Fold this sequence. Notes:
By secondary structure, the chain is of the alpha+beta class. The chain is built from 9 helices and 13 strands.
Amino acid sequence: MSLASLSAPVLSRIVSLSVAIANHAGKIIRDVLKKGELGIVQKENARDLQTEADRAAQRCIISSLSQCFPKITIIGEEGDEESKQISGKVYDPTPESTIQVTCPPHLASLGEEEIVVWVDPLDGTAEYTQGLLDHVTVLIGIASGGKAVGGVIHQPYYNYQNPGSELGRTIWGVVGGTVGGMPIVAPPEGKLIVTTTRSHSSSTVTDAVDAVCPDEVLRVGGAGHKVMLLLEGKAHLYVFASPGCKKWDTCAPEAILQAAGGILTDIKGSPIPYQASVPFRNSTGVLASAPGQNHAFYSAKIPQHVKDNLKA
Protein backbone atom coordinates (compact mmCIF):
# COMPACT_ATOMS: atom_id res chain seq x y z
CA MET A 1 0.00 0.00 0.00
CA SER A 2 1.17 3.57 -0.66
CA LEU A 3 2.82 5.54 2.12
CA ALA A 4 0.01 8.11 1.88
CA SER A 5 -2.48 5.46 2.83
CA LEU A 6 -0.65 4.76 6.09
CA SER A 7 -2.36 7.82 7.56
CA ALA A 8 -5.78 6.28 6.85
CA PRO A 9 -7.70 4.51 9.66
CA VAL A 10 -6.62 0.93 10.33
CA LEU A 11 -10.02 -0.45 9.25
CA SER A 12 -9.80 1.38 5.91
CA ARG A 13 -6.33 -0.03 5.30
CA ILE A 14 -7.33 -3.58 6.24
CA VAL A 15 -10.35 -3.52 3.91
CA SER A 16 -8.29 -1.99 1.09
CA LEU A 17 -5.53 -4.58 1.42
CA SER A 18 -8.10 -7.39 1.76
CA VAL A 19 -9.62 -6.41 -1.59
CA ALA A 20 -6.24 -6.74 -3.31
CA ILE A 21 -5.41 -9.98 -1.47
CA ALA A 22 -8.83 -11.50 -2.25
CA ASN A 23 -8.27 -10.75 -5.93
CA HIS A 24 -4.94 -12.56 -5.77
CA ALA A 25 -6.50 -15.48 -3.86
CA GLY A 26 -9.04 -15.76 -6.66
CA LYS A 27 -6.21 -16.16 -9.15
CA ILE A 28 -4.71 -18.93 -6.97
CA ILE A 29 -8.09 -20.71 -6.94
CA ARG A 30 -8.42 -20.48 -10.73
CA ASP A 31 -4.83 -21.68 -11.25
CA VAL A 32 -5.36 -24.79 -9.07
CA LEU A 33 -8.49 -25.75 -11.00
CA LYS A 34 -6.77 -25.14 -14.32
CA LYS A 35 -3.96 -27.52 -13.34
CA GLY A 36 -6.53 -30.13 -12.32
CA GLU A 37 -4.67 -31.24 -9.19
CA LEU A 38 -7.30 -30.40 -6.57
CA GLY A 39 -5.82 -32.46 -3.72
CA ILE A 40 -9.25 -33.11 -2.16
CA VAL A 41 -9.43 -34.22 1.46
CA GLN A 42 -12.53 -34.85 3.58
CA LYS A 43 -12.92 -32.88 6.81
CA GLU A 44 -15.93 -33.40 9.11
CA ASN A 45 -17.98 -35.44 6.63
CA ALA A 46 -18.34 -36.35 2.97
CA ARG A 47 -19.97 -32.99 2.21
CA ASP A 48 -17.24 -31.01 3.99
CA LEU A 49 -14.25 -30.96 1.65
CA GLN A 50 -10.93 -29.16 1.45
CA THR A 51 -8.84 -28.73 -1.69
CA GLU A 52 -5.37 -27.43 -2.47
CA ALA A 53 -7.12 -24.22 -3.57
CA ASP A 54 -8.56 -23.77 -0.05
CA ARG A 55 -5.16 -24.36 1.52
CA ALA A 56 -3.11 -22.19 -0.85
CA ALA A 57 -5.60 -19.32 -0.81
CA GLN A 58 -5.70 -19.32 3.00
CA ARG A 59 -1.90 -19.34 3.28
CA CYS A 60 -1.78 -16.32 0.96
CA ILE A 61 -4.54 -14.36 2.72
CA ILE A 62 -3.37 -14.91 6.28
CA SER A 63 0.34 -14.52 5.60
CA SER A 64 -0.25 -11.30 3.67
CA LEU A 65 -2.56 -9.74 6.25
CA SER A 66 -0.28 -10.79 9.12
CA GLN A 67 2.71 -9.22 7.41
CA CYS A 68 1.03 -5.80 7.25
CA PHE A 69 -1.04 -5.98 10.45
CA PRO A 70 0.84 -8.14 12.96
CA LYS A 71 -1.43 -7.25 15.91
CA ILE A 72 -4.75 -8.35 14.41
CA THR A 73 -6.25 -11.74 15.27
CA ILE A 74 -6.93 -13.90 12.20
CA ILE A 75 -9.06 -17.05 12.24
CA GLY A 76 -9.15 -19.14 9.06
CA GLU A 77 -11.43 -22.00 8.11
CA GLU A 78 -8.64 -24.38 7.26
CA GLY A 79 -7.10 -24.44 10.75
CA ASP A 80 -3.94 -23.31 12.45
CA GLU A 81 -1.54 -25.31 10.31
CA GLU A 82 -2.64 -23.51 7.15
CA SER A 83 -2.61 -20.17 9.00
CA LYS A 84 1.11 -20.15 9.72
CA GLN A 85 3.19 -17.76 7.67
CA ILE A 86 5.00 -19.65 4.96
CA SER A 87 7.99 -18.13 3.16
CA GLY A 88 7.21 -16.98 -0.36
CA LYS A 89 3.44 -16.92 0.12
CA VAL A 90 3.06 -13.24 1.07
CA TYR A 91 1.31 -11.13 -1.55
CA ASP A 92 2.47 -7.50 -1.62
CA PRO A 93 0.11 -5.50 -3.84
CA THR A 94 1.28 -2.44 -5.73
CA PRO A 95 -0.22 0.91 -4.69
CA GLU A 96 -2.11 0.97 -7.99
CA SER A 97 -3.93 -2.26 -7.11
CA THR A 98 -5.33 -0.95 -3.81
CA ILE A 99 -8.47 1.15 -3.38
CA GLN A 100 -9.44 4.03 -1.14
CA VAL A 101 -11.95 2.93 1.50
CA THR A 102 -13.81 5.54 3.54
CA CYS A 103 -14.17 4.73 7.23
CA PRO A 104 -17.16 6.08 9.19
CA PRO A 105 -16.18 8.21 12.22
CA HIS A 106 -17.30 5.68 14.83
CA LEU A 107 -14.82 3.09 13.48
CA ALA A 108 -11.94 5.43 12.60
CA SER A 109 -10.07 5.03 15.89
CA LEU A 110 -9.99 1.20 15.98
CA GLY A 111 -6.55 -0.24 16.71
CA GLU A 112 -5.11 -3.42 15.19
CA GLU A 113 -5.37 -5.28 18.49
CA GLU A 114 -9.15 -4.63 18.55
CA ILE A 115 -9.75 -6.39 15.24
CA VAL A 116 -10.59 -10.04 14.49
CA VAL A 117 -10.49 -11.20 10.87
CA TRP A 118 -12.52 -14.27 9.86
CA VAL A 119 -11.29 -15.90 6.64
CA ASP A 120 -13.01 -18.43 4.40
CA PRO A 121 -10.51 -18.80 1.55
CA LEU A 122 -12.93 -20.75 -0.63
CA ASP A 123 -16.60 -20.73 0.31
CA GLY A 124 -18.48 -23.33 -1.73
CA THR A 125 -15.75 -25.98 -1.94
CA ALA A 126 -18.15 -28.79 -2.85
CA GLU A 127 -19.54 -26.69 -5.71
CA TYR A 128 -15.98 -25.83 -6.81
CA THR A 129 -15.18 -29.53 -7.18
CA GLN A 130 -18.45 -30.08 -9.10
CA GLY A 131 -17.95 -27.25 -11.59
CA LEU A 132 -20.63 -24.94 -10.15
CA LEU A 133 -18.16 -22.11 -10.25
CA ASP A 134 -20.56 -19.19 -9.86
CA HIS A 135 -21.23 -20.45 -6.29
CA VAL A 136 -17.60 -19.96 -5.23
CA THR A 137 -16.47 -16.94 -3.17
CA VAL A 138 -13.48 -15.78 -1.12
CA LEU A 139 -14.61 -14.25 2.19
CA ILE A 140 -12.61 -11.89 4.42
CA GLY A 141 -14.71 -10.61 7.33
CA ILE A 142 -13.51 -7.97 9.78
CA ALA A 143 -15.01 -7.73 13.28
CA SER A 144 -14.50 -5.57 16.35
CA GLY A 145 -16.28 -5.66 19.69
CA GLY A 146 -17.98 -8.86 18.59
CA LYS A 147 -19.67 -7.18 15.61
CA ALA A 148 -19.01 -7.45 11.88
CA VAL A 149 -17.67 -4.04 10.79
CA GLY A 150 -16.18 -4.66 7.35
CA GLY A 151 -16.04 -7.32 4.70
CA VAL A 152 -14.79 -8.42 1.31
CA ILE A 153 -16.45 -10.95 -1.01
CA HIS A 154 -14.51 -11.98 -4.11
CA GLN A 155 -16.13 -14.05 -6.86
CA PRO A 156 -13.23 -15.71 -8.74
CA TYR A 157 -15.46 -16.98 -11.54
CA TYR A 158 -17.77 -14.02 -12.06
CA ASN A 159 -18.38 -13.85 -15.84
CA TYR A 160 -16.96 -17.36 -16.41
CA GLN A 161 -19.90 -18.27 -18.65
CA ASN A 162 -19.34 -15.19 -20.83
CA PRO A 163 -16.32 -15.94 -23.07
CA GLY A 164 -14.09 -12.93 -23.57
CA SER A 165 -15.29 -11.16 -20.42
CA GLU A 166 -12.93 -10.32 -17.58
CA LEU A 167 -13.02 -13.00 -14.89
CA GLY A 168 -13.67 -12.15 -11.27
CA ARG A 169 -15.35 -9.44 -9.20
CA THR A 170 -14.73 -8.10 -5.69
CA ILE A 171 -17.31 -6.43 -3.45
CA TRP A 172 -16.46 -4.68 -0.19
CA GLY A 173 -18.29 -2.78 2.48
CA VAL A 174 -17.88 -1.03 5.83
CA VAL A 175 -20.79 -0.88 8.28
CA GLY A 176 -22.02 2.69 8.50
CA GLY A 177 -20.24 3.44 5.24
CA THR A 178 -20.77 2.30 1.68
CA VAL A 179 -20.56 -0.78 -0.54
CA GLY A 180 -18.13 -0.85 -3.45
CA GLY A 181 -17.57 -3.11 -6.42
CA MET A 182 -21.16 -3.47 -7.62
CA PRO A 183 -24.52 -1.68 -7.75
CA ILE A 184 -27.10 -2.82 -5.18
CA VAL A 185 -30.27 -4.02 -6.91
CA ALA A 186 -33.68 -4.28 -5.26
CA PRO A 187 -35.43 -7.68 -5.55
CA PRO A 188 -38.69 -7.82 -7.50
CA GLU A 189 -41.86 -6.60 -5.83
CA GLY A 190 -45.01 -8.68 -5.53
CA LYS A 191 -43.29 -12.00 -4.86
CA LEU A 192 -40.94 -13.60 -2.33
CA ILE A 193 -37.79 -15.39 -3.45
CA VAL A 194 -35.89 -17.32 -0.78
CA THR A 195 -32.40 -18.75 -1.09
CA THR A 196 -31.31 -21.64 1.09
CA THR A 197 -28.86 -24.51 1.26
CA ARG A 198 -28.26 -26.76 -1.71
CA SER A 199 -26.67 -29.69 0.11
CA HIS A 200 -27.41 -29.40 3.87
CA SER A 201 -31.19 -29.59 3.93
CA SER A 202 -33.24 -31.14 6.74
CA SER A 203 -36.81 -31.10 8.01
CA THR A 204 -35.93 -28.10 10.19
CA VAL A 205 -34.53 -26.20 7.20
CA THR A 206 -37.60 -27.08 5.14
CA ASP A 207 -40.01 -26.04 7.90
CA ALA A 208 -38.31 -22.65 8.21
CA VAL A 209 -38.37 -22.01 4.47
CA ASP A 210 -42.00 -23.12 4.13
CA ALA A 211 -43.04 -20.89 7.04
CA VAL A 212 -42.19 -17.67 5.18
CA CYS A 213 -44.37 -18.80 2.21
CA PRO A 214 -41.93 -18.25 -0.65
CA ASP A 215 -43.03 -18.02 -4.29
CA GLU A 216 -39.67 -19.41 -5.38
CA VAL A 217 -36.77 -21.17 -3.63
CA LEU A 218 -33.18 -20.97 -4.89
CA ARG A 219 -31.07 -23.83 -3.53
CA VAL A 220 -27.44 -22.84 -3.99
CA GLY A 221 -24.05 -23.40 -2.38
CA GLY A 222 -22.00 -21.02 -0.27
CA ALA A 223 -23.11 -18.41 2.26
CA GLY A 224 -21.23 -15.74 0.32
CA HIS A 225 -23.08 -16.64 -2.86
CA LYS A 226 -26.45 -16.56 -1.10
CA VAL A 227 -25.86 -13.07 0.27
CA MET A 228 -24.68 -11.97 -3.18
CA LEU A 229 -28.12 -13.04 -4.49
CA LEU A 230 -29.69 -10.64 -1.94
CA LEU A 231 -27.42 -7.80 -3.06
CA GLU A 232 -28.03 -8.50 -6.75
CA GLY A 233 -31.82 -8.40 -6.31
CA LYS A 234 -32.23 -12.10 -7.16
CA ALA A 235 -33.62 -13.07 -3.74
CA HIS A 236 -35.38 -11.38 -0.83
CA LEU A 237 -34.39 -13.72 2.00
CA TYR A 238 -31.66 -16.21 2.93
CA VAL A 239 -33.08 -18.81 5.32
CA PHE A 240 -30.87 -21.49 6.89
CA ALA A 241 -32.28 -23.15 10.03
CA SER A 242 -29.27 -25.38 10.67
CA PRO A 243 -26.00 -25.29 12.62
CA GLY A 244 -24.14 -25.99 9.38
CA CYS A 245 -22.23 -22.75 8.82
CA LYS A 246 -19.46 -20.97 10.71
CA LYS A 247 -18.37 -17.45 11.65
CA TRP A 248 -16.04 -17.21 8.64
CA ASP A 249 -19.06 -17.94 6.38
CA THR A 250 -21.12 -15.02 7.68
CA CYS A 251 -18.83 -12.24 8.94
CA ALA A 252 -17.92 -10.70 5.58
CA PRO A 253 -21.41 -11.17 4.05
CA GLU A 254 -23.05 -9.67 7.14
CA ALA A 255 -20.84 -6.57 7.08
CA ILE A 256 -21.43 -5.92 3.38
CA LEU A 257 -25.15 -6.63 3.59
CA GLN A 258 -25.51 -4.30 6.58
CA ALA A 259 -23.52 -1.58 4.79
CA ALA A 260 -26.02 -1.92 1.92
CA GLY A 261 -29.01 -1.60 4.26
CA GLY A 262 -29.83 -5.29 4.75
CA ILE A 263 -29.72 -7.42 7.89
CA LEU A 264 -28.13 -10.76 8.83
CA THR A 265 -28.87 -12.45 12.16
CA ASP A 266 -29.33 -15.96 13.47
CA ILE A 267 -32.64 -17.71 12.75
CA LYS A 268 -34.11 -16.29 15.98
CA GLY A 269 -33.33 -12.71 14.96
CA SER A 270 -30.45 -12.36 17.43
CA PRO A 271 -27.02 -10.94 16.50
CA ILE A 272 -24.23 -13.37 15.63
CA PRO A 273 -21.16 -12.69 17.83
CA TYR A 274 -17.70 -12.48 16.26
CA GLN A 275 -15.26 -12.28 19.16
CA ALA A 276 -12.22 -14.52 18.75
CA SER A 277 -13.29 -16.49 21.83
CA VAL A 278 -16.75 -17.57 20.58
CA PRO A 279 -17.51 -21.04 19.15
CA PHE A 280 -16.86 -21.09 15.41
CA ARG A 281 -20.16 -22.76 14.54
CA ASN A 282 -23.30 -20.65 13.98
CA SER A 283 -25.35 -23.15 15.96
CA THR A 284 -28.56 -21.11 15.81
CA GLY A 285 -28.68 -20.79 12.03
CA VAL A 286 -28.82 -17.80 9.71
CA LEU A 287 -31.56 -15.44 8.53
CA ALA A 288 -30.64 -12.62 6.14
CA SER A 289 -32.82 -10.10 4.35
CA ALA A 290 -32.11 -7.90 1.35
CA PRO A 291 -32.10 -4.11 1.75
CA GLY A 292 -35.65 -2.81 2.13
CA GLN A 293 -37.12 -6.07 3.48
CA ASN A 294 -38.84 -6.35 6.87
CA HIS A 295 -36.41 -8.63 8.69
CA ALA A 296 -38.38 -8.72 11.96
CA PHE A 297 -41.55 -9.71 10.11
CA TYR A 298 -39.91 -12.77 8.58
CA SER A 299 -38.06 -13.67 11.78
CA ALA A 300 -41.44 -13.77 13.57
CA LYS A 301 -42.72 -16.25 10.95
CA ILE A 302 -40.06 -18.86 11.80
CA PRO A 303 -41.87 -21.58 13.82
CA GLN A 304 -41.04 -21.86 17.50
CA HIS A 305 -40.15 -25.54 17.16
CA VAL A 306 -37.53 -24.61 14.58
CA LYS A 307 -36.00 -22.04 16.93
CA ASP A 308 -36.15 -24.53 19.81
CA ASN A 309 -34.31 -27.15 17.72
CA LEU A 310 -31.33 -24.82 17.29
CA LYS A 311 -29.54 -24.51 20.61
CA ALA A 312 -26.64 -22.11 21.22
